[in-house]
Amino acid sequence: MIQEKTNIDADKTTIKNAPIIEIKDLHKAFGDNEVLKGVNLSVNKGENLVVLGKSGSGKSITIKCIIGLVMADKGEINVFDTDITKIDAKELNEIRVRIGFLFQNAALYDSMSVRENLSFTLRRHVSGLSKEELQNEISEVLENVGLADAIDKMPSELSGGMRKRVGLARTLILKPEIILYDEPTTGLDTITSREISELILDLQKKNKTSSIIITHDMACAKHTGDRIIILKDGIIHAEGSYESLEKSNDEWVRSFFI
User: Can you tell me the distance from the alpha carbon of 258 to that of 255, in angstroms, rounded to the nearest whole number?
Assistant: First the structure.
């Protein structure tokens, strides 16, 4: 693996602590297709880690393994100091509640309003909330993503950027400590993509979240990433800051930044 010298701003360096996610020698194959061939990575508390790689390089599979949507063939996946490959379904669900996952398409329930989408998620995981408490939580999280006025709209009435924000609100309503973003700006125009990137940074600062951000959007990678890793042939090929990787001696690494 190419280890590029990092050049991370001092204020970003201060957030580095013990890893909140640590993956060791992760392997995953689908039949004869070996996607992950020994991935090793860590995410520090309060850090935004960006993952780059060509299509099919295993980026999405890696984060799906972190929450047990895909089971690893081999390796350790330590989240909150617990190896999720060695725990039962009950323990895994307890960890999942502490992790937010933003899917590419926001994955909203089309038959439910924004309010109902958020209410369904909160009621499913948090018991004993009064109607007033429920509505206060929903209003607060929509305010945080700038969509307070969309509370009674249906998903079909929302733009792509608004759907992403609602999907993020649904993730945030459970107050996760970790957020996994799968292509958060895909399909959005430049201005909306920038707004989503700004929102990711705001959440990092306000909620002290730790995040993995999978993206093909280099503007998003540059804006949100404290550190970047690049997957190639099932392993991490390069790691460093945006600035150091952009100036890499490796022509393949530099090709991402052209």
Answer: 5
- CB–CB of 21/210 below 8 Å? yes
Sheet of strand 74-79, all strands in order from the earlier edge strand to the far edge: 33-44, 19-30, 74-79, 82-83
What is the pLDDT at residue 4? Answer: 52
Please give the model's pTM, rounded to 2 decimal places. Answer: 0.87
Q: Which residue has the tokens 């090793």?
A: 40
Sequence letter at residue 146: G
pLDDT of residue 11: 44
Does pLDDT of 7 surpass 70?
no
d(CA 46, CA 166): 23
**Share of the chain residues as helix, strand and coil, in percent rounded to the nearest 5:** 40, 25, 35
Q: What is the DSSP string of 159-213?
A: -HHHHHHHHHHHHHTT--SEEEEESTTTT--HHHHHHHHHHHHHHHHHH--EEEE
The whole-angstrom separation of Cα 38 and Cα 23 is 9
Round to whole Å and give the CA distance between 88 and 162: 36
CA angle 154–166–59, rounded 5-degree value: 125
Q: Which two tokens stand for residue 50?
A: 């960006």
